[in-house]
Amino acid sequence: MADSQGVLVFAEVNNGKLTAAAKESLGVGTRLGGGVSAVVIGKGTEAVAKELVAFGADKVYTYEDGEMAGYQPDAYLQLLQHAIEADTPQVVLMGHTDATKDLAPKLAFRLKAGVVMDCVELEQDPSKGLIATKPVYGGNALAVSETNTDVRVATVRAKAFEPLERDDSRAGSVTPLDVTIDPGSLKVKVLEVRKEESTGMRLEDAPVVVSGGRGLGGPEPFEQLEDLAKILGGAVGASRAVCDAGWLPHSFQVGLTGKTVTPNLYISVAISGASQHMAGCSGSKTIVAINKDKDCTMFKEARYGVEGDWQEVLPAFIEMCRELRGA
Amino acid sequence: MPRTPVAGYVCQTILASGKDLGELMRIIVFVKQVMDPETPQASFKIDEAAIKVVPVPGIPPVVNGFDEQATEAALQLKEQHDATVTVISMGKGLVMDVIKKPLSMGADELILLQDDAFEDGDAYSTAYALAMAVKKVGDFDLIICGRQASDTDRSLVGPGVADMLGVPCITIGKSVAIKDGKVLVERVRTDGTELVEAPLPALVTVSNELGEPRYPTLRGIMQASRKQPTVWGPADIGADPAMLGAAGRRIHMTRLFIPTTEKECEFIEGDNGADAGRKLALKLREDKLI
């Protein structure tokens, strides 16, 4: 594909709504140059297509099929390949999500494309190709890579890039993908999705996150964190050690292999701040740490810290927060 | 184990291997040796000119955590079915006590890919070398590997090998079961799990949600110490040198650095812990954060 140019964004939809990941991918896509197309799969794609145009897409490919509303590995892979054949992009972008952690590597190897996952910076250079920066060593370091294959694939980290302002006056074309998927070609199938019941706010959307670590010693103290989260209108998170120990389900895990959160306020209690954890919370506007070890990494990333035993600090902190919030 | 016919190289490999089908199930596990991810941040240094992390004296490397979980998943399957577990590792600076850990956990054999030609690869050249090694091993039912290595955090090599071998791939599993010629995987999502299936032979990557890997027993360690790994170079696996190591890269790392933080933590002091806690709340109020 010597004449390949521009960017194709795989735009994910959740419950019929365009995801933030898709908007952010479009945002960085428009910056890379050469025009931006998007592909959307599932139900109600025509309405989503209009929104994609408003957020920067010049051209949208749709595949309308209610059966495909959730991620189906082999089917999505085929559809993306068709969209790429039609659009001949130089770069294929998508958010770094549950689906694309699976889809992006498979697509890249199928296309023999250079691929970088979980990028925090992206740039296109006429001679060097796609220049991508991603965290490595559990977030201890950043690696810059160049890839100059005909097509290049990248996933972008949540909230690392700004979406464009919505502009409903923008014009763009919508083309249905004319593809028939042979059911016999689908080997990898998602049979069932089991969502964990979550009470309260989604961790990723919460303006305040209160997280606890191994230092809490067991599951019980998380009730106090729950109280604090309620008072502050936030959600509870946890370190990987806490989830691996079974104190909380893994859906609470903040970190490299858990959730990435970027709240206004991140309050960490008894978390030492392994880089693996910091990778999931270092984008928070303000980090506050309570820990008894003055030298722990958490304090290095924190704006405010209290060095002390959480059992002494936390109850008084929660009471004062309650008083101040009149809750 | 009944076999489902599959397209691609593997079918040919099975036939070419000349082995009887339907006997022992063969599980292959990929294991990478990495820098200990628990290395204190203060000791973590990068040689920017060499674009490499500087090994920390006194902190030995470890088996990538997710690959230990891959070994655990394979050993659990071995307990449920008649199976052999073959481990493949690649690299030059392998520490034998470290890389033999899967053997002491209970794996049957260890194959090492060791040659200068394998060095400094990217996901493409690494996946290519591993795929060629798998073809040399011959017929297999399942490959299991970690979801990503804790050094490069790429999460690419597993899906890459699956693509090159032409077998289906399921990523980020928390449980792996085999039934009626299919692999069933509970795949981790940020909001729960999804149940995914694929026909065998297949490749599955697993995550920490799988649970603590078993500790090697004394007996296991003694048995492992008597086992000699098989060492293969590029010619042994019939690999094209142009596709190996640095020569086979499609992704070129040009810079590796430690991001600087200019954050200065303000420690809130108090007469005691409770007092400091109250003062912290007041401070956050003052900054309009709560």
Describe the structure using short key phrases.
heterodimer, A: 327 residues, alpha/beta, 7-stranded parallel β-sheet, 5-stranded parallel β-sheet, 9 helices, 28% strand, elongated, B: 290 residues, 9-stranded mixed β-sheet, two-stranded antiparallel sheet, globular, disordered N terminus
What do these coordinates show?
The complex is a heterodimer of chains A (327) and B (290). Chain A is α/β, with parallel strands linked by helices. Chain A contains 9 helices and 18 strands. Helices cover 29% and strands 28% of the residues of chain A. A 7-stranded parallel β-sheet of chain A has the order 7-11-6-1-4-5-12, with helices on both faces. A 5-stranded parallel β-sheet of chain A has the order 15-14-16-17-18. Chain A is elongated and about 65 Å long. The termini of chain A are far apart. Chain B has 290 residues and is an alpha/beta fold. The longest helix of chain B is centred in the N-terminal third of the chain and has 16 residues, at 65-80. Strand 10 of chain A pairs antiparallel with strand 14 of chain B, so a sheet runs across the interface.
Task: State the gist of this model.
The complex is a heterodimer of chains A (327) and B (290). By secondary structure, chain A is α/β, with parallel strands linked by helices. Chain A is built from nine helices and 18 strands.
